[in-house]
Design goal:
The N and C termini lie far apart (32 Å). The protein is globular. The chain has one domain. Strands 3-4-5-6-2-1-7 form a seven-stranded mixed β-sheet. It has three helices and seven strands; from the N terminus they run βαββββββαα.
Length: 150
């Protein structure tokens, strides 16, 4: 990752629990052009999602670990990098806990990190710099969405 992520989501939805085999997924959202591929090209796997729109999961072709996902909304322009795959995952704690209505009941969330029952309005939680970066990417996202609706 060539820059800090836009935001780090800790998702507790049942779909992420099933997909990871754990209690949550920790994803760092970042512009795709800010991610440099250091090793072999990942295998891109079209995977169903709870939304019904699917996602592309980039997996290491050797060990099949999920490295990042691209969701339908922004497609290949925005990556949701699996924080646990980074060399220093400790540097990216969650900025927010999402879909906590389905979190495991034994998991105690820290009071110092925002937590929402479902999803959130980014305007309420993202820092100004991340909102500005998203705004700069928005024309490309809208063009991607328009192309895929045709």
């Amino acid at each position: 990752m060539e820059t800090t992520p836009l935001f780090v989501n800790c998702c507790h939805c049942r779909w992420c629990q099933r997909e990871t085999g754990a209690s949550f997924a920790l994803n760092a959202m970042i512009e795709a052009d800010q991610v440099t591929q250091l090793g072999i090209e990942p295998e891109l796997i079209d995977t169903p999602s709870e939304s019904g729109l699917g996602q592309i999961i980039a997996r290491c072709p050797k060990c099949l670990v999920a490295v990042w996902s691209n969701y339908a909304g922004a497609g290949p322009l925005l990556r949701f990098v699996r924080v646990g795959t980074l060399d220093n995952p400790d540097q990216l704690p969650p900025d927010i806990h999402i879909f906590t209505q389905s979190k495991q009941p034994w998991l105690v969330l820290p009071e110092s990190v925002p937590a929402v029952l479902e999803y959130y309005d980014r305007e309420d939680y993202w820092p100004a710099g991340s909102l500005a970066r998203r705004l700069a990417l928005l024309p490309a996202i809208e063009a991607y969405q328009a192309k895929n609706k045709a």
